[in-house]
Amino acid sequence: MNEIVMQILAKQPASYSIKIGSGFLLNPAEWLSLDYQGKQLVIITDDNVNKIYGEKLANALANYKPLLLSFLPGEKSKNYLTKQSLEDQMFEHHCNRDTIILSLGGGVVGDIAGFVASTYMRGISYIQIPTTLLAMIDSSVGGKTAINTNQGKNLIGAFWQPSYVVADLNCLMTLPKVQVINGLIEAIKIFMTNDAYYFNYVNNNIENIINKDILVIKNIVEQAIKLKVSVVSQDERENKHRVVLNFGHTIGHAIEKMTDYTILHGYAVALGILVEAKISQLLGFLSLEYYQIIQSLFFRLNITLSELKKLNCDEIILATKSDKKMKLNSVRYVLLNEIGNIHYDDNIYVHPVSDEIVKKAICEVQHDG
Predict the structure, then answer these.
(1) 238: helix, strand or coil
(2) Are 114 and 145 in contact, with CB atoms under 8 Å apart?
């Protein structure tokens, strides 16, 4: 047998800036690279964001004659059909490998637009322009792109880093309270696993956050992004430390799937955090005092247990079996030792937990309030 060896040089490191400020959206000259002059721009957004910001951004970029594409809002649109429709429209308008996608919207838009960018003509550039607190803190940073399937959430996708991220805090001023809380949960999650000081900062500033105090929100956005950048820069492909960012998501994604995505992502993750923190407590890692602090914060944010109480424990556990952290027929969980400190053992960040413990945790949380 003859053998020929192919050696591929390691991928070049990715580097991009995340711009945080106010007024960026309507002043693209402040952030759009001069290298993009003469190239076709495609704005991808959803119908809700399009009404508020889509046409405004298109008009601000009139010299580029951008193509504006929009789809139905919501998690149910995050699928193959939406992705294919966007790609077909781009082909119809002769978009090529020099085309730049501008992803304008929340997490659903960012995930789909990023996934289109990762596969269109084997990969083109894109810019994340998040318009929600959730997207600014979470999905716009780190290069995860994906769509949902009948089997679960985010199971088909790619790691594809944006050229840069533009977070205009003015967009947050139009968000309803429920969407502010929806995004805040992701900030709480990253502080809960990485930064006790900022967890307490959130706890002490709930009213200011709900009232959209832009300075307080700016502090939270900047710190959450700094922490995520620190984690992702060490582990882009989620082989080790990055998995910590999934705290609360194993149960949270199961709840989203079982409710047919009628529950907002942040609220589902909050319920997931309560269950996974309870697992940590039952296993002897997290004290009851810390668990009650977490529980109290979520109750102050009007996170109720009504959705969780409607669900069957065994069916939740079954729904977790499609989780990406599943290994050797065991679902693995990120666990807490204390607020700001995960349970880390022998270079292992996620730990197998028996179905019996998970069921007990779900049942106890269901009866907590």
Answers:
(1) coil
(2) yes
Q: Give the tokens for residue 216.
A: 């307080």
Can you tell me the distance from the alpha carbon of 65 to that of 61, in angstroms, rounded to the nearest whole number?
Answer: 7
Does the structure show a pLDDT above 90 at 345?
no
State the DSSP code for 13. P
Catalytic residue among 189, 249, 325, 343: 249
- For 11, the token pair is 């991928």
Question: What span, in angstroms and rounded, lies between the C-alpha atoms of 27 and 60?
Answer: 7
Is 246 marked active-site? Answer: yes
Distance separating alpha carbons of residues 108 and 46, to the nearest angstrom:
9
Rg (CA), the chain: 21
Catalytic residue chosen out of the listed positions 11, 122, 329, 356: 122
pLDDT of residue 207: 96
pLDDT of residue 241: 83
Q: Would you place residue 328 in the very low, low, confident or very high pLDDT band (cuts 50, 70, 90)?
A: low
Is 144 one of the annotated active-site residues of the chain? yes
Which parts of the chain are beta strand (E)?
18-21, 41-46, 67-71, 100-105, 125-130, 144-149, 152-159, 164-168, 332-333, 336-338, 341-342, 351-352
* Residue of 147, 210, 203, 224 whose CA lies nearest to 175: 210
Burial class (CB in 10 A: 0-12, 13-18, 19+), 241: middle
Q: What's the pTM value of the predicted model, to 2 decimals?
A: 0.92
Among this protein's residues, is 186 annotated catalytic?
A: yes
What is the predicted pLDDT for the residue at 234?
84
Q: Of these residues, 78, 189, 228, 278, which one is catalytic?
A: 228
Cβ neighbour number for residue 88 with a 10 Å cutoff: 10
Residues 6 or more apart in contact with residue 177 via CB below 8 angstroms: 210
Residue from 83, 153, 242, 332 carrying the catalytic annotation: 242
